[in-house]
Amino acid sequence: LEEKRDAPAPVLLNLQQVSVEAAAVLATEAEKKNVTIHVDAKDTYIDAQRDDIWQLILNLLDNAVKYNIEGGRVDLIVYPENDDAVLIVKDTGIGIPAQDLPRVFERFYRVNKGRSRSIGGTGLGLSIVKHIVARYRGELSLQSNLSVGTEFTIRFKRAAAPK
Do the Cβ atoms of 111 and 142 come closer than 8 Å? Predict the structure, then answer.
């Protein structure tokens, strides 16, 4: 992602479809933690490589499940807004301390190293998300409050729906 090698050409991609499929893949993991994944996705199209967007959504959902509380909830919301395609992943999890927010997109950065080791992962997920958003000239924002949850909002340029 960082090297910007010749990537395959983007294709018309429905964020709704990829979102529903990614949520289904994580359903068993979420069930083990008694976390509910709720998808509210409208037909929303972008020009992108499916594998990139799949990885982006899967990384965000995986973190939202891993760092959630017992009985928590993850919302995956997708909708068109003017010229944008908006994708939101928000959870009722443990949240991220304010002092760590500027660093969470760094490679290998972990907010709570002890807990992260016990949960697993490489510390690369959010760095990958940041690079995928940049590849497609999107915007990425993050809000988080301790013991309340975290919300990632991504905006891509919206593509016209197929006719």
Answer: no
